Every structure is written in structure tokens, then in C-alpha cells.
Input
Amino acid sequence: MIIGGARGKNKYEILRLSLDYEILNFTKQWSYLIYNASLFFSPAIQKQYFEKYGYGQMIPVAANDVAFSIHSVILNLIILSQISMFERGNQKFSNYAIAIVVVVWFSVAVCFFIALHSQSWLWLISIFNTIQAVMILIKYFPQAFMNFLRKSTDGFSIGSVLLDFSGGVFNYSQMLVQSKDQGSW
Output
């Protein structure tokens, strides 16, 4: 992640990965994991799902969704641990990213206590699904801005963006096929 002393630069070149992107992505991946694992493993949430959408419907989360979420969170933990262990130059988390993360998790805490009182667990995990969808829309802005300021994408793999994008397209395609198959949009 860090290249030291290359091409006459300072001892450590600045990190080319936006810390803000990484913390927003981490929030997105945790939200997605909580949604997938809760809907896949919890009989109480599955019961609420069937009561809302009908007992003929299938749960929209498969084992591969849960496995992907776990994999993604673990990889993000590894990246964040590397960020904490290695030199970052003068780069730090921005106040905007920290504020977004704090607002998201504070909102989750409030929603948890609302759900706890009313036992609306399906509603609560739908909040997590909404969070992950919103984070998809905003998480790339810090990295794109950093690349713009540096006038370079050097050090940031477009492959990860393409994999993320194609995974989202395939996920929504899978949901469309399942919806058509079940006759329920």
C-alpha cells in the first residue's frame, strides 16, 4: 500500500486509497452482512417476512449472499488493520466521513430501540438494507475526489470497482429473475 522512497519522493508516498472510501465501504459491508445474516438465519425475521409478503414467497437471501458478506467484511477488516499499522503520510479520515458513519450508526441504534419495543425485526433489517444501498451511492465519491486532486488513478484498482458494479448488477438481476419466477414484484 505504501511505496517508500521511490522516484525521489518523501520517505513514504501518501496512501493512494482514500480512507474515507474505506470507512464508508466498511459501513456498507457491515450493513449488508447484518441484513443477509439476519434474514437468512433468524426464524423470527423469516416469519415476519412471510407474514408481510406471503408464505408462498421465498426468502430473498441465499447462503452465497451470506458468504459474500462475511468475506467482504473480513477483507475490509484486513484493509483497515493495514491502514492502522502502516504509514499514511498526512492522510486521515475526514470529518464528513466520520459524521456520515456516526449518523448512520446512531440512527441504527435509535431504530434498534424502536424495533425492540415493537418487535419489528423485519423493519429493522430493512433499515440495514437501505443503508447499504445508500452507501453504494456515496462511497466512491471520496476516492473519485482524491483521484481528481491527484490527477491520477495510480494505485487504485479499477478492477475492484468493476467487480463491485458487476456484483450489484448480478445481484439485482438475480432478484428480478426470482421475482418473475415467483410472480411477485
